[in-house]
Amino acid sequence: MSLLTPDPGLLFWMLVSFGIVFFVLAKFGFPIIVKMVDERKAYIDQSLESAKQANERLKGIQQEGERILSTTREEQARILKEANEMRARIINEAKDQAHIEAGKILEEANKTIQKEKEIAMRDVHNQIAMLSLDIAEKVLRKNLNNKTAQLELVDRLIDEAQKN
Known about the structure:
By secondary structure, the chain is an all-alpha fold. Helix content is 93%, strand content 0%. The chain is rod-shaped and about 200 Å long.
């Protein structure tokens, strides 16, 4: 049974050796371990602080991105509106110019038609006059075959000329 009951001398030397090991560990080991734990804690705290700052910067960047995106959308809408207004203005100006040009062309066409009409009317009058003269000449030749008819016509024309 001596295995289960320790000897007082063994117990004493175990306590002394434990005390020496504890003293050496307390003097040299624990400060190094505590220092390493403190450094690790400081590193973790610093990492957490950096992560928090990075998160805040990310939020700021996201807000800035949203603001820039919003500004860009507004600018895009403004540019599209201006482009539509400019397109409408150009179309209206082109329509007005087309109306003006069409009016000029119609006016020129009307002038040309009027000139052609006047020329045609003069030509028709001239042809009618020539036909009338030809018909009158033929009628007069037929009616004035004899000398007495000629003298009567001349007398009548003289009397009419004197009345006018």
